[in-house]
Amino acid sequence: MDKIQKxxxxxxxxxxxxxxxxxxxxxxxGSIALYSDALESIINVVTAVAALLAVRxxxxxxxxxxxxxxxKVEYFSAVLEGxxxxxxxxxxxxxxxxxxxxxxxxxxxxxxxxxNAIATFINACWSWLLIREGRRxxxxxxxxxxxxxxxxxxxxAGVLAGLLFVPLTGWHWLDPAMAALVAVNIxxxxxxxxxxxxxxxxxxxxxxEELKRVRDVIAVNAEGAIEAHDLRxxxxxxxxxxxxxxxxxxxxxxxxAHDICDRIERALRSDIDDxxxxxHVEPDNKAKHAGIVVxx
Length: 296
Prior knowledge:
By secondary structure, the chain is an alpha+beta fold. The chain is 67% helix and 10% strand.
């Protein structure tokens, strides 16, 4: 089991612990806002299981039916997370609506808020770790899971702050109102997550800053060639696909052209983790006099 899978398993365990704490806080207070917070934690557990399945499947090597590997399955996991986040938000909105129609007198004990605060602190630490490692290891599933938990942290902090005012002001409508705000924030998070994941499924190119790095690496390491053009890139989970056309002098031997390609590939792989590179070698009459100029 690699580090990504271990983190995914850790997310499931953390999710169960946090849900237990948040449900205990709701049981102690009867707060609709804390109920909404606990409900979101159930979604956290479900999405953590989906993330684990996704990273395990994405780690499988390429096969006859999937010659380019299984990397994109992590995007499906992230889309599923977005859908479940939106479903949770709609359920919370339903509870907050009935709470606003019939506000209840709440005697919110500080112990219940303290239990929820502990759960929020655990989520904050874990979400920071998932986002950091997800970005470092280029895992959409881990990154999505971490961002989802970070949204949970923000909303939990807002709920706790709002509920502190209920016994001070006597505004009992504040409890369902805070739950509604939680739902709106969750909806926004779910939409953003789905939009980003669908972009990955649609083979979006690398960001311009990364594309510039790729061009620079090719230009510096393609000595002996004439130019490179038609550069195309796309992300698929942790893997970056890079392909381009490399124009070489017509009299150059296959061995010499192959050596140039090997040099470029080594340089790109040292600069970009998990890069899969395809280079189409062409004779000089195919030059477009546009694209990447080789630096001699």
